[in-house]
Design goal:
Layout (H helix, E strand, L loop, with lengths): L2 E6 L7 H8 L5 E4 L8 E5 L2 E5 L12 E4 L4 E2 L1 H12 L10 E4 L3 E2 L2 H14 L11 H9 L12 H22 L7 H11 L7 E2 L1 H10 L4 E8 L22 H5 L8 E7 L2 E3 L11 H11 L11 E3 L1 E2 H10 L4 E5 L9 E10 L2 E3 L12 E8 L16 H14 L3 E5 L7 E3 L2
Helix pairs in contact: 3-4
This protein binds guanosine-5'-diphosphate (GDP).
Length: 425
């Protein structure tokens, strides 16, 4: 039995989905332990190209049980839509291969509305939310005014709880935003339509994982965002509302007793960031445009152009430590092949001093990147499958990053396809 985690080291979109899709073959259970349908994992495989928002990326592998843990928030309408999109292309999804924690929280239409209304109210000071209701629903979870998926088992009881919540919610919608309010009837009808079909998937994932552990099964945790978006350790307040940190994975899955054997930290060979917030090594203008085009850096969930820049060693070293990464998967290295020289952010300058430490979030906006360049390789590497076949300059770049991050780079990804990977021994 092995327990592993695949997590993001940076701002998200590092290529976690691609790595889970590759590695899921060796695991029996793949679990999403936080977040909702606000992120998108792109997976390219024999069925086609998919942007997964809620479904774990192990969903394409036969015999893998995929789990949405108690740390997740689920919009049943969005999940039903995603299941349809995937099954339309061939893969089978049923109660045997998709399990939903009875403790996962339901995202209601009013959560989406509140997200949208608040972003509109903030105008230029907006956070760059994906408007899927994620921050409002996590707020409700911690205010204890949310509904758990398992409550769908008894609609009469659920209705009673919802009555109190809707009365409270409508006060905010009406008095603060002057917006559309909801009736309990319409929300119950919405739950009947989208929640009830999910009932066969709902279970106590703690029991499921205990049984899996007893049977010696291998378990893989899949994070949905990067370390720098973690609610505690990220670039607060420009973070997500949950914890994509590997240490949270057993908790968000229903099995807080599980010990993780290995953590694969996914790092992109350059930096990208979606949404607002400080992004120290950011590029603008022509250089940024070129890199964005080369890497097709547009958000999987929203289509928004991603902000881009060179790899950031300060942020990556911090992210790898927060994730307790035992090895690194370096992705999208093929994208850098057009560059004569590869820029790297090696340190930050803050208040006139150089630092290797990732700053306190409120000070991050004042940090300036210290950039050095290393030689490029100017060769198409997308067909390479053996480390020793990579150009020397490319290997030098990998080994330089490895030394600076302080963690072995075990996987090097040179394309989006499942087999476009170099595994170092
Ligand atoms: P995730 O949310 O961390 O799974 O990342 P995204 O799916 O948002 O973004 C990663 C993007 O890069 C996807 O479009 C992948 O298909 C693509 N991708 C992943 N690894 C590689 C790689 O090594 N090379 C290239 N060219 N594309 C990659």
């Amino acid at each position: 039995m092995t327990v592993s985690a695949i997590v993001g080291v940076n701002w998200g979109d590092e290529g976690k989905g691609r790595m889970v899709d590759l590695i899921a073959e060796d695991y029996d259970v793949v679990i999403r332990y936080q977040g909702g349908n606000n992120a998108g994992h792109t997976v390219v495989n024999e069925y086609g190209k998919f942007a997964l928002h809620l479904l774990p990326s192990g969903i394409f592998r036969q015999n893998v049980v995929n789990v949405l843990g108690n740390g997740t928030v689920i919009d049943p309408q969005a999940l039903c839509g995603e299941i349809k999109n995937v099954t339309d292309k061939g893969p089978v999804i049923g109660p045997e291969n998709l399990k939903i924690s009875d403790r996962a929280i339901i995202v209601f239409p009013y959560h989406r509305d509140l997200d949208e209304l608040e972003e509109a109210r903030l105008k230029d000071a907006k956070f760059g939310s994906t408007k899927r209701g994620i921050a409002p629903v996590y707020s409700d979870k911690y205010q204890k005014k949310a509904i758990q998926m398992g409550e769908l088992r008894d609609m009469a009881k659920l209705r009673k709880r919802l009555e109190g919540i809707v009365e409270w919610k409508n006060l905010t919608l009406k008095n603060i935003y002057n917006a559309k309010t909801y009736t309990v009837d319409e929300l119950m009808a919405w739950l009947e339509e989208w929640g009830t079909p999910l009932l066969p998937h709902i279970c106590d994932t703690g029991i499921l994982l205990r049984e899996a552990e007893k049977a010696g099964k291998s378990i893989l945790f899949e994070a949905q965002l990067g370390a720098l978006r973690d609610i505690d350790f990220g670039i607060y307040p420009f973070t997500s509302s949950s914890s994509p940190i590997a240490a949270y994975a057993p908790i968000g899955s229903g099995a807080p007793w599980l010990k993780i054997d290995s953590v694969i930290g996914v790092v992109k060979a350059y930096s990208t960031c979606v949404g607002e917030g400080p992004f120290t090594a950011e590029w603008f203008g022509e250089d940024a445009e070129k890199l964005r085009e080369a890497g097709a850096e547009y958000g999987a969930a929203t289509g928004r152009p991603r902000r881009v820049g060179p790899v950031d060693i300060v942020a990556t070293r911090y992210g790898a430590r927060m994730q307790a990464a035992t090895c690194i998967a370096l992705t999208k290295l093929d994208i850098l092949s057009y560059m004569d020289e590869i820029p790297v952010c090696t340190q930050y300058e803050l208040n006139g001093e150089l630092t290797d430490e990732f700053p306190f979030p409120a000070n991050l906006a004042e940090a300036k990147p210290v950039i050095k360049t290393v030689p490029g390789w100017k060769t198409d590497i997308s067909g390479v499958r053996k480390y020793e076949d990579l150009p020397q300059a490319c290997r030098d770049y990998i080994e330089y990053l490895e030394k600076e991050i302080g963690c072995p780079i075990t996987y090097v990804s040179v394309g989006a396809e499942r087999d476009a990977i170099i595994v170092r021994d």
